Amino acid sequence: MNRRKFSGKFFTLLFTTTFVGKLLHRRASADTKGYDPSKHYYGMGIQIDKCIGCGRCVEACKEENGVPKEPFFFRTWVERYIIKRNGEVNVRSIDGRISGRDREIEETEILRSFFVPKLCNQCDNPPCVQVCPVGATFKTEDGVILVDEDRCIGCRYCIQACPYGARYLHPEKQTADKCTFCYHRITKGLLPACVEVCPTQARIFGDSKSPASPLTRFKRMNKIHVLKPSLNTDPKVLYSELDGEVR
Amino acid sequence: MMKFLPHLPEQLVRLLVVFGVLVAGMFFVRSMLPPELKDTSIHIQSTLDREAARPVHYAGSEACADCHEEYTIKKGGYHKNLSCETCHGAAKEHTENPAEVKPNVPRLREFCVRCHTFDPSRPTGFPQINPVVHNPLKPCASCHNPHDPKPPTVPQECQACHAEIARMKAVSRHVLLDCTTCHNAPNGHKISPRVVKASIPTDRDFCGKCHGSGAQMKEAPKIDLTSHGEKYLCWQCHYPHQPGLD
User: Interface pTM (ipTM) of the complex?
Assistant: First the structure.
């Protein structure tokens, strides 16, 4: 065999194996187990006027997802807004009623006050996914933003980038952690834990691809607003009766 | 190769050969790399599998209804929309092993009070009490059935439910007025307060009986109803339970 014949055969072999291997791999990764993510697109609705600020959602979230119990780590949390007569706005997390420092309200001259439950907005255009240097966080086909804890290097870029403050660094795993809409529950047809325990149905969960889901009804019956719409993050957590002071 | 590229100088041909080898080498190295290093869908799939495999702690209210038909009483009461696990805690283990693992039954006052303490940020109309003065130390369940909660007796006084307003009125200039001076509360209001509502004054002349320029009441501040406040009702600007403060 001369040099020309050798190189010709060598390159044909190289190209065919590469492409055949690629085709085989495509087929292998197309397997799924019962749940078809392309048929769902999840979202949450929150009715501010129904929230009583009991913190059961925060408690249930910590229980369900193994979020550390200390009142600094939250996948979902509840904020108390106090708007005073002079226009001053005070915002404080009630810490899921864990720390006890939520009980006293020092403010006087209150004009209006209310609770706002918050969580990851599962943005359609997520800033956290854009900034991740290792591609550890991504948007799934059914619209949930997840973190690959094997890939995350704990650099905290996403925590800084999230305009809603929805991420934290898990103190044991040292990786970014956030609300997953209880991905292990919704793929089994259960509700997220916070929605399950909410005593006043302030939280509504549903599939926006289904014409009869509670979320579709929520969107039809309410005037909807999202947090920080000017950032064009296009959140999938929708609020009704949202006050203009809420950030 | 010389047949196809007869006019190219030899040094350029060599350069092209080197370039071709580099490109081919790149494809070769790529094909040798394990797929995890070049295909993000593998990472995504492994994360999806890991997330989906996490243990479920809250079983969901439908799981409770399979066995516990006896609590259909809850369906009619104010707690009808509460999930069982809101009060009884995560019960997935109980559904798998009903005989040995029993869910928590909250009997302490602290549990109920977490939702029902008076808090100015809570929505109007949500039933709230002041736990310091409301039967201190007595467990809530001794008077209220948590599966069908309602007041044990029909309240005789308005302040049993409207304590905040009563306390406010007690230090205001309207202290000597009964609630019924301004509000007409039908008897049904005490039994189902949200169905039968108490009335509120609907015209300016009602307040004018004391505060109008020709009224009998000497101590009350007087205004001219025809020129003061245009078309608005008095309570739209002046809060009657604490007049003079706004």
Answer: 0.79
